[in-house]
Amino acid sequence: MSKLHFTTKHANAATVTRNWYVVDGTNQTVGRMCARIASILRGKNKASYTPHVDTGDYVIVINADKVKFSGNKLEDKIYLNFSGYPGGKKEETAGNLLKRRPEAVIERAVRGMLPKNRLGRKMIKKLLVYAGAEHPHTAQQPKELKF
Known about the structure:
Helices cover 29% and strands 17% of the residues. The strands form two sheets. It has a four-stranded parallel sheet with strand order 5-2-1-6, with helices on one face.
């Protein structure tokens, strides 16, 4: 009686193929949209997903200024920044940050959903966020991604 041996195929840098996707943020809820984006950046939508390898795809987000928050988060949600100096804590509401730098809202939300290590820092570089409807990545022929 012979034993069957099944081996798991692990992805590595040589076998990973990356796709490009474009996401339209118009009337999308920030948290739900960013959770799906983080999953794609990690590569969890692929059969070749390997936890210790960056198997994710590139994601372009357009119309980041047209995203929405549910409930009273525009007034109640507070983003904190700390310079490291005494008295260097700065607070800003979600509504104010969305007006001033709409890209930062998406980037901070997705960064919080990725691993907090060197692999996560590599993954966040594949996220490209733009406030308007235009992006300079048409040469990569990104596919439209619907949520």
